[in-house]
Amino acid sequence: MPDENAFVRTTISESAKVMPAQLTSAMEIRSMNAYYGSFRAVKEVDLTIYDHYITALIGSSGCGKSTLLRALNRMNDLVPGARVEGDVHFHGTNIYADDVDPVEVRRRIGMVFQKPNPFPKSIYDNVAWGARVNGYRGNMAELVEGALRQAALWDEVKDKLDQSGYSLSGGQQQRLCIARTIAVKPEIILMDEPTSALDPVATLRIEELIQELKERYTIVIVTHNMQQAARASDFTAFLNMDEDRAGRVVEFGRTADIFTKPEHEETENYITGRFG
Amino acid sequence: MTAGEFPEGPQLDAQINRRRRRGAYLRISFLASLIVAILALLTLLFNIVNSAFGLVALESEVAPAALVEALGLDTTSSALVDLSKDDLVAVLRTNVNNNVGRRLERDQRFYDDRLVFETQTKWDELCGRAVDRPAGCSTGARGRDDVYALVIEQIVQPKVRETWLLFDSIFHRAGIEERAAALYPSADLVFRSWLSVDFVTSPQSPQAEVAGVRTAILGSLWIVGVTILFSFPVGVGAAVYLEEYARDTRLNRLVQTNINNLAGVPSIIYGMLGLAIFVRVLEAFTSGAAFGGVEGSVTANGRTVVSAGLTLGLLILPIIIINAQEAIRAVPQSLRSAGMALGASQWQTIRAHVLPNAIPGILTGAILAVARALGETAPLVVVGASTFITADPTGPFSKFTALPIQIFQWTSRPQDEFRNIAAAAIIVLLVLLLMLNATAIVLRNRYARRV
Amino acid sequence: MISILTTIGIVVVLGREALLFFQTKEVSLGEFFSSTTWEPQIFEFGIWPLVRSTLMVGFIAVLVAVPLGLATAVYLSEYASDRARGLLKPVLEVLAGIPTVVYGYFALTFVTPLLRSLLGVSLVEIFNVASAGIVVGVLIIPLVSSMSEDALHAVPLSLREAAHGLGATKLEVSLRVVLPAALSGITAAIVVSVSRAIGETMVVAIAAGAAPRNWNLGKDGLFSTVLNPFISGETMTGHIVRISGGDLSYNSIDYDSVFAIGLMLFLMTLSLNMLSRRFVARFREVYE
Ligand SMILES: Nc1ncnc2c1ncn2[C@@H]1O[C@H](COP(=O)(O)OP(=O)(O)OP(=O)(O)O)[C@@H](O)[C@H]1O
Ligand SMILES: [Mg+2]
Fold it and tell me: Is there a domain that residue C152 lies in?
């Protein structure tokens, strides 16, 4: 292994090293294909998302990371012409089965997007919105406070809960979006490049936050940033495009293994910065 | 971590089902609203067609067959409609009194070479006058169809006793026949299409049975002609200026806001503006007086085609400007730079590159604006459309009426027959508008293909 | 610039004649705005009878057009497939392209008889404000729906995705995120449509009646006259058309009075349009 990997090796997440031997799976993806019209964007994916761990999806631009991620909570249903084949098991049920309602899937598997997208409502209403539509019967103020605390935003906004979500900085907005997702008490949180629109300081805060959230949630995160994947995740899946431009999972394993001793040359080329 | 306060298990299923159902209901009600709007349109069209055709009970003052018989012709082989012009004039001469006959002849003579009701000496005297010369002195002779219309109007005088809607005429025919037989024993029950070639080619008349929209159509065309002549060059000029020359100064921004605001001013306000400016202040020009002698019968004040056309021109000017601006903005900047780079002046560039590319868009917008002008009623009423004229407009300084005005006036009459011809006139207007819109669509498609 | 001239023209013309009107000794500004009788023969010029009918037509029209137009817009923007949209939108455009005089005909020959047969001939007069208001409402549906649809369309996809991601149904996304987010744009649409309804002329001239409805509160009570939509009542625009349609002599008080009404109408619609522009500007600010 060439020396340029030394940096990556030393920054691998601590938790990855003390991983318990026994793993339970949260989601099992089995021979999944995703299409936009006739174009196959993701091909034959087999992947396991482990409970209470952070799984990172990496790969070059346009290789289908977002498509794969969005297939995990049926967000692709919203895109006209998009469809998914194969199975995605969540607690033993296939979320694409006929009798499963995508609304329930999305409540249990939440999503945070690349660009912060708070609703044009107050901070409080942003957090409370999802809980309201989902029929939350408990104390709303407590729920909102709890979610904002978990998202490490409470201290910054507790005095201006009735101000617009747009009045916050980009990083705060993204944490607001995370709080909003947490408030409906999902089991899994999907994050699509949640820090790519933020400055380094805000990025760091979100990364710390993700580590804290791991205690309670299973997280799948798409990132372009190798160091972020290495720092923040326990497992990593590397996707690459075929000749027909369909993305497939080249290699999946513990982050430590992927970054130190990748089995495939493609993976090694990618993480060491030699593209193609 | 507990999710206890959210519904779970069967409760969750029930809750989601409930939300789904609510979604389905509302979705249906949204669609229903759209359908209501479409139904309104269909009802409106049906309502018009329903009135424009249908049975009428027609009672004539004099039976057409009797007139033919009086000429000594065989009623089985020849009908009134088939008679020659000479026969028809003969019918007129025997059936109308001399006063009426003379009036008709003064309006327009029957033959170029001889007089029917007037004596030659009287005629020469009338036509020798300086003022109040009858129109008949300067116009050509009546055609055969015109004479036929006179016979019907003056002698046969078919009176519509009652009219029925198309729907009833088809589905309740038996009942109608019964009623007509009981109430109007001597009347003929005939199916009548109020919309007919005669209707389009006949002049306005106080009698619904013979009234037509020729006067109104010509009036509309004249007005719209003036409107286009005024607003198209001015509108396109303004748009070019605003898009290509105007800098982003306060004044120009003000002009832009102003144009946008003008587009929202109610049309009747334009009518009042037209009344005050074109009809009153500029009366000397809009009445034609400033341009020398105008035929006495035409007009004496500013309530003319020009005033109406200019008023509508002001009305559609903002629309034309806004549409033209959009078309010009759509021309790629690279074309402009290319022109300038070749050393062309700004105006040369605009003329050679910008305008040719923008013209289809400009035209489309202008046609739609003209369609708007064609349907406008309120401003014309205010500017002073004539309540009743039978003479076709002959130029920009004529008194005017217009198709929508005619519809308005006929609709306001209480008698059923006028409703019928109003409906027929509406169909004529809608067909004209349809043709304009079709042109615009063709233009737009051709444009879309080229780019 | 012709456009500026037009504006100045409108203001000057309306203003001058209106001024002349208020200078005549029979009328005063105070009376104009306080009297509830419009009776030019006896020199009573109170604007309220005309304003009443105008506002009532506007109100009924908005009552018809806003729910229908808004629901149509939500359907077209959130639910309809591209093909359905391509098919349905032209229908609305046709509705918008029909001349208003035709709507007037429709009001008088269809809606009025319908109302009369539904509610009783004794209750509904031949000329009535309700029928005119309903038809004006139909006439402005395309305006409400196309402006609202533009506003709904401008709400970014990311907000819809966020809401779906929280486990909301399509309806909840549409009504509880997209609609509120487009609210200022929709408000603009409603305000513009009010202005359009107030300025609408031919429908009311044909169907609403040709006599100002004076307020006889003492005799008839509030509900049987002033607030009764089923009796005739002339609107501001209807009055202008009727008076100036005849052979009006230029220096009569009637002529001037019409301009005073016109000025008031102009100011009302102008302020509504400017208000609407405000809302649109605010809407743009948020999303661009
Ligand atoms: N809505 C869509 N319709 C059609 N094709 C799409 C759509 N969204 C994505 N694609 C295509 O699917 C492929 C995968 O896209 P995807 O967004 O999943 O890539 P990605 O790995 O997330 O890229 P990036 O790193 O740039 O976000 C690309 O070729 C893209 O062009
Ligand atoms: Mg992506």
Answer: yes
Least CB-CB distance to A75: which of C156, C165, C177? C165
User: Residue C288: its pLDDT value, please?
Assistant: 58
On whether residue C224 sits in a domain, the answer given is yes
Residues B36 and B87 grouped into a single domain: no
| Maximum distance among all Cα pairs of chain B, rounded to whole angstroms | 116
Mean pLDDT by 10 residues, chain A (276 residues): 41 47 84 93 92 92 92 91 92 89 92 92 93 90 93 92 91 94 93 90 90 92 89 92 87 91 87 64
Residues B408 and B432 in one domain: yes
Question: Domain total for chain B?
Answer: 3
Ligand 1 and A238: CB distance under 6 A: no
In chain B, the residue whose alpha carbon lies closest to the alpha carbon of C108 is B411
pLDDT in tens, A38-93: 999 999 999 999 999 999 999 988 899 999 999 999 999 888 889 999 999 998 88
Same domain for B371 and B289: yes
Residue at B209 is within a domain: no
pLDDT (tens digit, 9 = 90+) per residue, C13-34? 777 776 666 666 666 666 666 6
Per the structure, the complete domain to which residue B360 belongs is given by 214-450
Q: Are residues B234 and B366 in the same domain?
A: yes
Give the pair of three-digit tokens for residue B374: 């064609």
Residues B48 and B61 in one domain: no
Nearest to C79 among B30, B269, B271 (CB): B30
Please, which residues have CB within 8 angstroms of residue B242's CB and are 6 or more apart in sequence? B252, B255, B256, B321, B325
ipTM, 2 decimals? 0.87
E strand spans, chain A? 25-36, 39-50, 54-59, 82-90, 93-94, 109-112, 188-192, 218-222, 235-241, 247-254
How far is the CA of A251 from the CAs of A200, A239, A265, B103, B432, in angstroms? 29, 7, 10, 104, 69
Residue C288 forms part of a structural domain: no
Identify the residue whose C-alpha is closest to ligand 1 atom 23.
Answer: A62
- If one counts the domains in chain C, the total is 1
Compute φ and ψ for C252, nearest 5 degrees: -80, 160
At residue B249's C-alpha, the angle toward residues B243 and B253, to 5°, is: 65
Report yes or no on B351 lying in a domain. Answer: yes
Question: Which CATH number goes with the domain that contains C220?
Answer: 1.10.3720.10
pTM value is 0.84
Q: Whose CA is nearest to atom 26 of ligand 1?
A: A61
Nearest CA in chain A to C287: A120
Q: Is residue B201 part of a domain?
A: no
- C200 belongs to a structural domain: yes
CB contacts < 8 A (A, C): 73
Do residue B46 and residue B63 come from a single domain? no
* B14 inside 8 A of chain A by CB: no
Q: Is residue B378 part of a domain?
A: yes
Q: Are residues B380 and B435 in the same domain?
A: yes
Cβ of residue A36 lying under 6 Å from some atom of ligand 1: yes
Pairing between β-strand A109-112 and β-strand A188-192 as defined by DSSP bridges:
parallel
B145 plus B176 within the same structural domain: yes
Most confident of B421-430, C30-39, C89-98: B421-430
Report CA(A57)–ligand 1 centroid distance (Å).
14
Structural domain including C25 reads 2-283
- Split at pLDDT 50, 70, 90, the class of C223 is low
Q: Kindly give, in sequence order, each residue whose CB lies less than 8 Å from that of residue B109, ignoring residues fewer than 6 positions away.
A: B115, B116, B136, B139, B141, B142
Q: How far apart are the C-alpha atoms of B35 and B37, rounded to whole Å?
A: 5
Nearest Cα residue to A229 out of A181, A184, A187, A262:
A262
